[in-house]
Specification:
Layout lengths: L2 E8 L5 H7 L1 H7 L5 E9 L4 E8 L2 H17 L6 E6 L2 H6 L6
Antiparallel strand pairs: 1-3, 1-4, 2-3
Organism: Ureibacillus acetophenoni
Pfam families: ydhR
GO molecular function: monooxygenase activity
Length: about 100
Amino acid sequence: MSYLLQVDFPMDGPFGDEMAQAFEELANSITEENGFIWKIWTENEDAKEAGGIYLFETKETAQKYLEMHTKRLAGFGITNVNAKIFSINSKLTEITKGPLK
């Protein structure tokens, strides 16, 4: 069973193309994380928030990544991190065409 990790936090920027350029190296490193399947990057410039939705192979790999990522964000001065880990109902997700791979 796969597990979804939802993370968001306050961020002053950059956003859009500037964010893509600034975090390209980080994005590439995330793909190497143990148990990682995919990530959708989220941003809301008006609300000054960013984050992501991740899919991991196991609850343990999602939790381990969250712990590491929270420490990394703290190193950037971001300490107000909201995060949740969810199991996925694969049968319903397949009906609604959610990506499970």
